[in-house]
Amino acid sequence: MASKTVEDVLFPGIDVRVEEVNDSSGVLVVEAVSTARPGRCPNCRKQARRVHSTYQRTLDERPLGSRRVIVRLRVRRYFCDRWKCCRTTFVEQVPGLSARYCRSSTGLAGWLRSIAIELGGRPAARLCRRLRLTAGRTRLLRLLTAPAVPDRAPRVLGVDEFAFRKGCTYGTVLVDVEAGRVVDVLPDRTSETFAAWLTEHPGAEIICRDRASAYTKAVREAAPRALEVADRWHLLQNLSAAVERTATSTATACANVPRRRQ
Fold it and tell me: Between 122-130 and 106-119, two packed helices, what is the crossing angle to 10 degrees?
């Protein structure tokens, strides 16, 4: 059985050659050189033939045990030989390791994105500090990208309001009820905005909403054939509120009834 190389351990399946590894003060510094095939111009997609120069990039990599890992990657800058292309030179990207304008490896960026999706801003930043990952709240939130909005609305569309800032600004969240995923987020909770969305995204057969009159008006204007239903959460909330008011008023009335003297 063949023994594994340093490249197999640190960069499995990635076209790099490790030249040196230095361990100091809990930080593992890896000197590596790209061995990938000549890259393609990001503008015209023509494969490069001539090397312009080389330079070193510094990337944060996923930690190895309790040690932080920094990769000093030597990459090549190529000429673009297509005369119609507006780009004269470009820098290669190593698939699976580097990306344009990023100071973290693609693997580390994937870790941080997953943490940000699950926890959000500040909680994700606290977890990153425990995991020895260098990432603040702002950086984690920048990694989040909005999913693509489908051309047509889902068959069962859920509509509800939420607060950007409670008591000040509100928005509308649209959900595919059958798939259990968010479809889109609207910047406010007005009937005009929701009606415009329904017009641009037809196809909703059932619209599950709360009792807000603005949403009812939008559905009647933009999707009159859709069936409107109240969602279970708001039905249970309204029922519990009604029961609580009834119980409170009954208890108050009983307390005000004068007692008979024995």
Answer: 130
Instruction: Tell me the pTM.
Output: 0.61
Query: Tokens representing 177?
Result: 């009820």
State the pLDDT at residue 261.
Answer: 59
Buried b (16+ CB within 10 A) or exposed e, 220-237: eebbeebeeeebeeeeee
Tokens 């009792």 sit at which residue?
A: 211
Sequential DSSP letters for 181-194 = EEEEEESS--HHHH
Would you call 7 helix, strand, or coil by DSSP?
helix
Say if residues 72 and 20 touch (Cβ distance below 8 Å): no
Strand partners, 186: 172
pLDDT at 3 over 70: no
How far apart CA 254 and CA 262 sit, in angstroms, is 19
> Are 105 and 90 a contacting pair, CB within 8 Å?
no
Sheet holding 169-176, edge to edge: 181-186, 169-176, 156-165, 206-209, 227-230
| CA 196-178-120 angle, 5° bins | 75
DSSP 72: E
